[in-house]
Amino acid sequence: MTLADHAFPAWAATPVATRAAALDRLADLIERDRETLMAICVQEARKTIPDALAEVREAVDFCRYYAAEARAKLVTTALPGPTGERNELSLHGRGVFACIAPWNFPLAIFLGQVSAALVAGNCVIAKPAPQTPRIAAAAVALAHEAGIPADVLHLVTGGGEVGDALVRDPRIAGVAFTGSTATARRIARALLDDESRPLVPLIAETGGINAMIVDSTALTEQVVQDVVTSAFRSAGQRCSALRLLLVQEDVAERTIAMLQGAMDTLVVGDPADPATDVGPVIDRAAFDRLESYAQGQKSRWLHRIKAPATGDFVAPTIIRLHSIAALDQEWFGPLLHVVTWPAGTLPEVIGAVNALGYGLTMGLHSRIAAVAQAVAAAAHVGNLYINRSMIGAVVGSQPFGGEGRSGTGFKAGGPHYLLRFVHERVVSTDTTSAGGNASLLSIEDVAGL
């Protein structure tokens, strides 16, 4: 912490172009080491090969996108004012940022947070999840190779006690966090406990009870494909993953029957096997929690496929619920809940989803444009996906982040994200004090100032 704090003034004074160039070099190095990084993701984070490849590509996208955004946005802006006055707005790094990343995207989200903070002129202490330290260490080593000074970017590893000590340090000028809503609340309280420390930003992206609404006009084949992708890819371990399928009663039987058949084609197994569709969950603790819940819901199962008997494999499962409100927490795995709704009650359905208090992602399948417009207007979610899957947000095209219990904003991978990492400062100058000749203000005085 002391090293980062001391390194901040020099790094903040480093030109934006220099900081952005380092991110571009980092992106090149990630591409150079793509296969090595993919292998670590498969071995350590238990990702399938397609997911590992997508992870590396997203990390590259974050680096290049934030580099381009910094060049365009982190510039001094002249503001309007009366004749004889000059007003300029400039953006400056805040200090030392704590970046606390999750295990489900241990390279992409990790580097997304870190690269944004760095290019904005901050030093960074980066803490990966305790399940995935190796991929974080590899990423930090590449960042140093790309030209980020070692004192500017530090890696710390450990569990919750390390993260707690980090965010409570009064020298921390901001926190970027991705994880559970409960942990985000603890961080927010910790940042306010010390009355003597400055007020600092918490940039939090948390979970969600993500729903997909399907009406009677939807194309069943497309619905099923998108449900399988959204609910079961990555073993359901995505913040954006589908948790609650809401199907209009008129098409529920047909949709569920086709979904059951599609699930039966999924291969659950070793993530290093190219044939695998669904790998294990992250660790034994996650397996125990998910499996205990699933077994407790056994009387409500509509379908469950086979999974290997050994290892932390949670079998993809459909669970019927009697109401939307019955799902009162996020289950971070391949468990899909289904509720049906009668025609004519779409506003009530949207209201019930909003009432859950989360607002990360939502899906809609309908061929009626007015329905899409109504859902877009009424749904309190950060990302609404219409007639497509609900996962795989693209950096720069689909900025990602929620509202309510699902996050604080601004959206990662979007045009406003970097602004959360900077101070805004305005300088207003009366140019008439130099006889109306503003150029005189640039002359150094005899004191050598």
Describe the structure in your own words.
By secondary structure, the chain is an alpha/beta fold. It has two domains: 2-206 and 407-427, Aldehyde Dehydrogenase, Chain A, domain 1 (3-Layer(aba) Sandwich); 211-386, 3-Layer(aba) Sandwich (Aldehyde Dehydrogenase, Chain A, domain 2). The chain contains 13 helices and 15 strands. It has helices at residues 2-13, 16-32, 34-44, 49-73, 108-119, 133-145, 160-168, 181-193, 220-232, 249-263, 284-296, 346-355, 369-378; strands at residues 77-79, 85-93, 96-100, 123-127, 153-155, 172-178, 202-205, 211-214, 244-248, 301-304, 317-320, 335-341, 361-365, 383-386, 422-430. Helix 2 (16-32) packs antiparallel against helix 4, helix 3 (34-44) crosses helix 4 (49-73) and helix 9 (220-232) packs across helix 10.
Secondary structure layout plus pairing:
Blueprint: H1 2-13, H2 16-32, H3 34-44, H4 49-73, E1 77-79, E2 85-93, E3 96-100, H5 108-119, E4 123-127, H6 133-145, E5 153-155, H7 160-168, E6 172-178, H8 181-193, E7 202-205, E8 211-214, H9 220-232, E9 244-248, H10 249-263, H11 284-296, E10 301-304, E11 317-320, E12 335-341, H12 346-355, E13 361-365, H13 369-378, E14 383-386, E15 422-430
Parallel strand pairs: 3-4, 3-6, 4-5, 6-7, 8-9, 8-13, 9-12, 11-12, 13-14
Antiparallel strand pairs: 1-2, 2-15, 10-11
Helix pairs in contact: 2-4, 2-6, 3-4, 4-5, 9-10
